[in-house]
Amino acid sequence: MKTILITGCSSGFGLEIARHFHERDWRVIATMRSPRTDLLPPSERLRVLALDVTDPQSIRQAVAEAGPIDVLVNNAGIGVLNALEGISMDTAREVFETNTLGTIAVTQALLPQFRQRQSGVIVNVTSSVTLRSLPLLSVYTASKAAVNAFTESLALELAPYQVRVRLVLPGRAPETRFGENARARMTAGIPEPYADLAQHIFAEWQQSTLLTHPQDVAEAVWRAATDPSTPMRIAAGADAIEWTQD
Ligand SMILES: NC(=O)c1ccc[n+]([C@@H]2O[C@H](COP(=O)([O-])OP(=O)(O)OC[C@H]3O[C@@H](n4cnc5c(N)ncnc54)[C@H](OP(=O)(O)O)[C@@H]3O)[C@@H](O)[C@H]2O)c1
Question: Is the CB of 14 under 6 A from ligand 1?
């Protein structure tokens, strides 16, 4: 029986990925900053562990408690939507600490066991905004584009050890808590000179009918984890798939 460890399982994609693999008879280690046992079904194959990807001690402890892992999914992430002039450097650092350095740190902590066993899969969840640039997302896009570059280089480094590394790029998914969570970093609002641009962008988004659902992301992660023939970049969701065809 294979074991998957997923970061950021308290909501959204992470929670759905945990459910998806559990339903398919995998052993699942669902990690959360604040562990909750009421989100997933009680099961001998399911463990909830505390893991804050920005905290080295928390990473060490979770990796020690988890035991052998076959698949790591770096899913935890935070967003910020604003003109660059409206984003403090503290916020920019927080976004990179979680999305970029958090992914690198958790990967580094699990890597020795993958290399020694000469097997394992690492799946990094980034975003379709790295495929087609949008305004007001400069810092978020940079944090995820850095993970794309990191992943593609790491894949070459680990290929001799039979460790596979893949990217899943979801499109826009209003069903998750992502927008609500990001709002905490946007309390100062959009700077006035960018108000018209922001209104125009928000109106465009309202009109777009193609969206991503958590199930699309869970299925893309499933393919990345179980099918060695998948390409390096797997778009998840109708909008993300359309963007890869541009
Ligand atoms: N929704 C979208 O439109 C969209 C599109 C493309 C890509 N993505 C990416 O998909 C991933 C999942 O997002 P989602 O839509 O499912 O959003 P979500 O519902 O907000 O879930 C994000 C998860 O990350 C966790 N998290 C945040 N900071 C963390 C930290 N320091 N350590 C560990 N966990 C942390 C959150 O936990 P807490 O409950 O503790 O905050 C939450 O469980 C993210 O990487 C996001 O960038 C989202």
Answer: yes
Can you tell me which atom of ligand 1 is nearest the CA of 173? 3
Q: Give, in degrees to the nearest 5, the angle at Cα 88 between 87 and 90.
A: 130
Round the average pLDDT of the chain to a whole number and report it: 97
How many angstroms separate the alpha carbon of residue 182 from the centre of ligand 1?
Answer: 9
Residue 76: which of 103, 50, 112 has the closest Cα?
Answer: 103
pLDDT at 246 over 80: no
Enter the pTM of the model: 0.98
| Residue 187 pLDDT | 84
Among 3.50.20.20, 3.40.50.1820, 1.10.10.10, 3.40.50.720, name the CATH number for the domain at 3-244: 3.40.50.720
Nearest CA to ligand 1 atom 39: 10
Tokens of 211: 């969206």
